[in-house]
Amino acid sequence: GESVGLHLPTLSVQEGDNSIINCAYSNSASDYFIWYKQESGKGPQFIIDIRSNMDKRQGQRVTVLLNKTVKHLSLQIAATQPGDSAVYFCAVSRGLTGGGNKLTFGTGTQLKVEL
Amino acid sequence: DAGVIQSPRHEVTEMGQEVTLRCKPISGHDYLFWYRQTMMRGLELLIYFNNNVPIDDSGMPEDRFSAKMPNASFSTLKIQPSEPRDSAVYFCASSAVSLAGGSQQYFGPGTRLTVT
Question: Strands A62-67 and A56-58, how do they pair?
Answer without folding.
Answer: antiparallel
